[in-house]
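#lab-general

N.A. 3:47 PM
ok so I finally got the sequence cleaned up, no stray characters, all 112 residues accounted for. can someone with queue access submit it? mine expired

B.Y. 3:52 PM
send it over

N.A. 3:53 PM
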Amino acid sequence: EVQLVESGGGLVQPGGSLVLSCAASGFTFSSYVMNWVRQAPGKGLEWVSTIDPGGSTTDYADTVKGSFTISRDNAKNTRYRQMNSPKPGDTAVYYCQHRGSRGQGTQVTVSS
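B.Y. 4:20 PM
back already:
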């Protein structure tokens, strides 16, 4: 059974930083592309970023390009998302996604 557990969310000030983590189990983590998606209040799911199985290729939505960085540690079945200089518009529930599965999400609130 695929399990994805996100953590690290919370309240962060604009211009601050935050690291989100996703612990994965139930599949061969190192063989799969992984995504981050988010859902802002009152809006639908938005794709945010993708990382390839080896961690060498990443892709970002234009809305976060330059401020978010994703990485993965295949030895720990974990991936990370470094949020630098978040903006209030980045307030959302962030989900780790593997194919059709998502975790429970972690809430990020950007506010002063």
